[in-house]
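sry for the spam today, last one i promise. struct tokens for design, 251 residues
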């Protein structure tokens, strides 16, 4: 990452969104280091020291991200409400679990959903390093409890990200194929939701992360794939279609 892209301070940029940009640079560097030995084509030895160093950096970034969320201005905060589309009591696929986030505007919503995507990446990397470390050293049984905690964090982050998504969509429109008795996984595949092209671009990267990162719970992943499919159609992006079909991770 060129230095001139790493911080906007010298160009007069300020505010909470600038911090998220800096976190994205850190996250990109951590993921790049992790891929040095996690990639199937890597020639870098998967040594315990490498795993510990990457896990430590990822943990530090996750802590800083969490602290960022505590300090955002009051006007940036969101509320969690029941999905209005569920007000009739009928089944609705416009939200994942009937709870959605409401924001002041799209700019705030886009920063929050990037925040959650970044935390998904950092926690996924930490969980990958723990499981790999245990493979290298089976005697490290204490890693089980840490891995279990990280899985719970991944589940919570994925659900929160799902709650962020409906704000960007204008309506839900089940297709004629929709089976009202389908499982959440099937329902996510068959339901189409409309979104304005100018808004869809704000979701492209966070949703790509969410459907491609390791350890995202499958139910949330499949629901988000349905939303990413709608985004891909709205902006005519065949690469995003490929992500939906193949789970390719593009960062």
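last one done:
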């Amino acid at each position: 990452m060129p230095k001139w892209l790493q911080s906007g301070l010298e160009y007069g940029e300020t505010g909470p969104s600038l911090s998220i940009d800096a976190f994205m640079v850190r996250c990109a560097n951590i993921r790049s280091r992790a891929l040095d030995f996690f990639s199937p084509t890597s020639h870098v030895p998967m040594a315990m020291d490498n795993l510990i160093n990457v896990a430590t950096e990822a943990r530090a970034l996750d802590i800083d991200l969490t602290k960022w969320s505590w300090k955002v201005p009051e006007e940036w905060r969101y509320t969690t409400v029941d999905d209005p589309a569920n007000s009739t009591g009928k089944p609705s696929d416009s939200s994942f679990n009937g709870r959605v986030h409401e924001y002041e505007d799209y700019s705030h919503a886009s920063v929050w959903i990037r925040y959650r995507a970044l935390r998904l990446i950092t926690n996924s990397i930490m969980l990958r390093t723990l499981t790999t470390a245990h493979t290298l050293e089976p005697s490290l049984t204490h890693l089980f409890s840490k891995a279990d905690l990280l899985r719970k964090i991944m589940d919570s982050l994925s659900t929160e990200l799902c709650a962020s998504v409906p704000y960007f969509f204008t309506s839900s429109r089940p297709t004629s194929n929709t089976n009202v008795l389908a499982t959440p996984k099937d329902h996510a595949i068959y339901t189409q939701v409309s979104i304005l092209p100018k808004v869809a671009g704000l979701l492209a990267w966070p949703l790509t992360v969410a459907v491609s990162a390791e350890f995202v719970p499958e139910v949330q992943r499949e629901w988000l794939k349905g939303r990413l499919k709608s985004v891909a159609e709205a902006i005519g992006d065949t690469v995003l279609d490929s992500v939906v079909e193949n789970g390719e991770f593009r960062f």
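The two ends are 13 Å apart (CA to CA). ok im logging off now
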